[in-house]
Amino acid sequence: MHLIAIVVYAAAAAILGSSVGPSLDPGRGGSHVFTAVFFVGFALVHEVYARVRAEAAARDDRERNQQALDERWRHAEAALDEMRDRIEGLNREGDARRSNDMAVLKTLLGQLADRLGANLSTGVAGSDGGKQASDADIRRVLRDALEENRVDLYLQPVVSLPQRHSRFYECYSRIRDGAGQVIAPDRYIALATENGLIATVDNLLLLRCVQLIRRLQRQHRDVGFFVNLSLDSISDGSFFDQFLFFLESNAELADRMVFEFAQADLARHGAAASAKLARMADLGYSFSLDQVTDLDLDCARLAEQNFRFVKIEAERLVTAGGPTANPDGTGERLTRLKTELARHQIDLIAEKVEAEKTVVDLLDLEVDYAQGWLFGEPRRSREAG
User: Fold this and answer.
1) Which residues share a beta bridge with 369?
2) Residues near 135 by Cβ (< 8 Å), separated by ≥ 6?
3) Per-residue confidence band for 13, with pLDDT thresholds at 50, 70 and 90
4) Considering the entire predicted model, what is its pTM?
5) Which terminus in the chain has less CB density within 10 A, N or C?
């Protein structure tokens, strides 16, 4: 473009110089001088024009860039407002959840306090006065521990075989006395069960577990938890309604929490238990069958009820799969059970593993998961509280 302008200016300057030069300066070089003057004049005019256009274009560019920046700023402000609204919503949701957690906790503690208060003066029937005094002491410890929030969450790993990587944790409750000493479960479990207390004590685990899962989610740690739950507890209609509301409020945690029920309890409660489990399963929660003594399981029925795990003592598994399992030494009973479990996508977990030899036997039986003191004893969770 500039080259064309130069050629045009040069031609115009030559024409004007040859026309004007001889009349104004009759000398020999007059036309050349005026040609040069005209060319320089045209060049200066072109330079001024080019500068004006360049400045106008730059101004237009600045205006477009400013408009683009203004638009981006409006989008950024809108995004910040949306993020602020989300954060406020999460805070409100968190406050609501904490409030709901505390409401459930208060109800549970109230139930326990009422039951403990009713039983505290009556003692436990029996002829041994020393035992009655001991029972009363344990009830006092239970009452005080609950009132002062001294029910702790303990975790024991469930590992994959043969890698022994922790895939899940089973949750347990432990009681501390006023001096901070942990009360052994065998000192209060039977008494609490006798007095109808153990169900509510175990349900306190749910709150601790939910708190723990939320903390682990913030750390992007993916691990599941088994939570023991008594069917005696959820058979209470008023309690179950509140319990179900709690589960629904925390439905996003359903894939991280597995509720565990004893085989005998499931059989004892029958159809009533099935109805309760169905409502929990509708919210996305799955189950584990624990304390299995009868290996003739209806795996299709368990899968229909959303059972995804079955726990069997390692010794029982080894016995069922070993050469003494059947007269012909084939161990067909365990083979059939494993086939049925796999068909219905139910995982088998060998529990109470305490020796390396047992691990070898389990590997021979191709058991995928195991739990026991060999892989880790229950330890107090420092994440929950």
Assistant:
1) 160, 349
2) 123, 124, 191
3) low
4) 0.66
5) N
